[in-house]
Amino acid sequence: MSQQKSTNVVWHSATITREKRQELNDHRSAVLWFTGLSGSGKSTLAHAVEDELYKRQGRTFVLDGDNVRHGLCGDLGFSLEDRKENIRRVGEVAKLFTEAGVIVLTAFISPLREDRERVRNILPHGDFIEIYCAASLEVCEGRDVKGLYKKARAGQIPEFTGITSPYEEPVNPELVVNTGGDPLEVSLAHVMRLLEEREIIKAV
Questions:
Q1: Looking at 29, 40, 43, 110, which residue is catalytic?
Q2: What would the DSSP string read from start to end of the chain?
Q3: 3 lies in a domain?
């Protein structure tokens, strides 16, 4: 699905560069890639980080798994190939956001390492920050905030990550947060500290 089919296209360089946009925003742009099982707290943490960045005058946008499938990826199902294409598209959109000088936060299960690495590799070095929302299957299934695990156990959802489809934990993520046990405030503090250490935002 990722094969280049467009022909006779020429890249047009903008007069306003990413560096100029970052200077205007007073922070660097980056992709914060939150990954983990369904119910691990990816979206909750991503939005909490965005709230904190907003308070600091940050330019941000959250790309959420469910929301993207209402439009950009509405034509995709949940087969392995469709999931790969879903993440590929999100990665390309995230890349555009970084060029706009925005800190983009993505909340996707993105179960396969190779798909996450593919996104990492299309971005300049240091732009992709993988944040593993670590929560056990038991914890996530116990939460079952969307009722999806119940449906998966009943056989109503085929290829459900963690039940009938694999989730590959990150091998060397930039950050691991214990969303299965720590309060949201603790995970939020870990993310903000990392952004300050990497000089994406200024320390307060």
A1: 110
A2: -------S--PPPPSS-HHHHHHHHTS--EEEEEE-STTSSHHHHHHHHHHHHHHTT--EEEEEHHHHTTTTTTT--SSHHHHHHHHHHHHHHHHHHHHTT-EEEEE-----HHHHHHHHHHSPTT-EEEEEE---HHHHHHH-TTSHHHHHHTTSSSS-BTTTB-----SS-SEEE-TTTS-HHHHHHHHHHHHHHTTSS---
A3: no
| Ramachandran category for residue 8: left, alpha or beta (phi over 0 → left; psi -120 to 50 → alpha) | left
pLDDT band at 8 (very low <50, low <70, confident <90, very high): low
Distance CA 45, CA 11 (A): 36
- Domain hosting 27: range is 18-197
Q: What is the pTM of this model?
A: 0.90
User: Is 13 annotated in the active site?
Assistant: no
Is the confidence at residue 99, as pLDDT, over 70?
yes
CATH at residue 82:
3.40.50.300
pLDDT (tens digit per residue) in 147-200: 999 999 999 998 899 999 999 999 999 999 999 999 999 999 999 999 999 999
